């Protein structure tokens, strides 16, 4: 099952789960409004904030909305 595989990867520390707090949520609201003309989702706005705040190298996704926000993606 996929959930078990994800748990195993987290346990091996190959994947880090980033939690959302009130500061991240507020920043995501701002990004959601900033990119409103691109019609991104609030989830994508939150991911954008995490990408920036944690200085991530890329986002592992099939979602093309990240290219609109000039985020490096892989998959």
| Spatial ordering of strands, largest sheet | 1-2
In whole angstroms, how far apart are the ends? 20 Å
Radius of gyration: 13 Å
> Would you list the SSEs in sequence order as H and E?
HHHEHE
Report on the structure:
The model has no long low-confidence stretch (mean pLDDT 89). Helices cover 52% and strands 5% of the residues. It is mainly alpha-helical and 75 residues long. α2 packs across α3 (42-53). The protein has 4 helices and 2 strands, in the order αααβαβ. It is globular. α4 (65-68) links the parallel β1 and β2 (73-74). Strands 1-2 form a two-stranded parallel sheet. It has helices spanning 2-11, 22-34, 42-53, 65-68; strands at residues 59-60, 73-74.
Concise account of the structure shown:
It is built from 4 helices and 2 strands, in the order H-H-H-E-H-E. By secondary structure, it is mainly α.
Topology of helices and strands:
Layout: H1 2-11, H2 22-34, H3 42-53, E1 59-60, H4 65-68, E2 73-74
Parallel strand pairs: 1-2
Helix pairs in contact: 2-3
Which features characterize this protein?
75 residues; mainly alpha; two-stranded parallel ribbon; 4 helices; 2 strands; globular
């Amino acid at each position: 099952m996929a959930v078990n595989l994800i748990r195993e990867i987290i346990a091996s520390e190959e994947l880090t789960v980033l939690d959302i707090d009130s500061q991240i949520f507020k920043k995501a609201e701002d990004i959601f409004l900033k990119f409103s003309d691109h019609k991104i989702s609030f989830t994508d706005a939150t991911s954008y904030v995490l990408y920036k705040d944690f200085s991530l190298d890329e986002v592992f996704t099939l979602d093309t909305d990240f290219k609109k926000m000039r985020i490096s993606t892989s998959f």
